[in-house]
Amino acid sequence: MRGAVIHAPGDVRFETLDDPEILEPTDAVIRTAVTCVCGTDLWPWRGLDATDEAHPMGHEYVGFVEAAGSEVTSVKPGQFVVGSFATSDNTCANCRNGWQSNCVNREFMTTCQAEYVRIPNAQGTLVATEEVPGEEFWPGLLAVSDVMGTGWYAAEAAEVGPGSTAVVVGDGAVGLCGVIAAKEMGAERIIAMSRHESRQKLAREFGATDIVTERGEDGVARIKEMTEGIGVDSVLECVGTGEAMRQALHSARPGGNVGFVGLPHEVAIDGEELFFTHVGLRGGPAPVRRFLPDLIDRVLSGRIDPGKVFDLTLPLEQVAEGYRAMDERRAIKALLTP
Ligand SMILES: [Zn+2]
């Protein structure tokens, strides 16, 4: 089979690789229906994460079960399945508590920009749809496997509730999905922080009521101005930089909450500063598996369409162009079709 391999910053190649096989009785192998490039894939592309040796890429997937190990009974060959970037047995204490992305048997997916993918912990990780969904639903279900699940978790962690006010920091795919989540959870006012016109438009389509283009201290000042100096109930931090985290902390009202899901790069929080904000903080890799059944239903019923974050579709063999387009901000998120 063929798949994407990163060799060095800016050097992703589509290569012939060994066909994935069942290595453990808990594994499955899927044939990829669609996959994509994630914002976090840009860290090694830009050289901000080191690439010491060439390795496959990709952690988002939906596909068809090709083969299942002897201990996998929940899905069978031919079924269309949705998973998560973090695999989980869905039975350990952390899973039972709802923190499947911290499963004691967790493995992070790293080989999904390929024609076939081995899924560890398949029994606990994969959710099959009742029937094979129409192709028009594939992008939305793919989004559920990572960015929509992560946006949902950001809103939950920020304790978005009916009638609440929310700020979304970050207008990438996760931030935009965070807008969808905040709307679904009943937020009355959703302020999206974005400087890009196409993303502002999508944010509004997804339910944002206001757009703030300022960043940093100016962004915080603008949020305060809009909330009588108080701040909002919930902030979804979907970037992962120090500036974004500060912006999030200071946009929340005393007693408000920040859900942070941007993978932190050089984020340092001052204890005293946090102490005096009275703001609650929760973040981490989203326990997407917990949300899968609900989010799959919302997509298949047409209630939400997070697939709209894919504004570029490429054949899988042009995967490098997907990285380039996202790096140059010509695309929000690139969908790849095998
Ligand atoms: Zn577990």
From TrEMBL:
Domain Enoyl reductase (ER), chain residue ranges per copy: 7-336
MF (Gene Ontology): oxidoreductase activity; zinc ion binding
Coiled coil spans: none
Domain of life: Bacteria
This protein's UniProt keywords: Metal-binding, Oxidoreductase, Zinc
Alphabetical list of PANTHER family matching this protein: DEHYDROGENASE, ZINC-CONTAINING, PUTATIVE (AFU_ORTHOLOGUE AFUA_2G02810)-RELATED, ZINC-TYPE ALCOHOL DEHYDROGENASE-LIKE
Protein's name according to its UniProt entry: Zinc-dependent alcohol dehydrogenase family protein
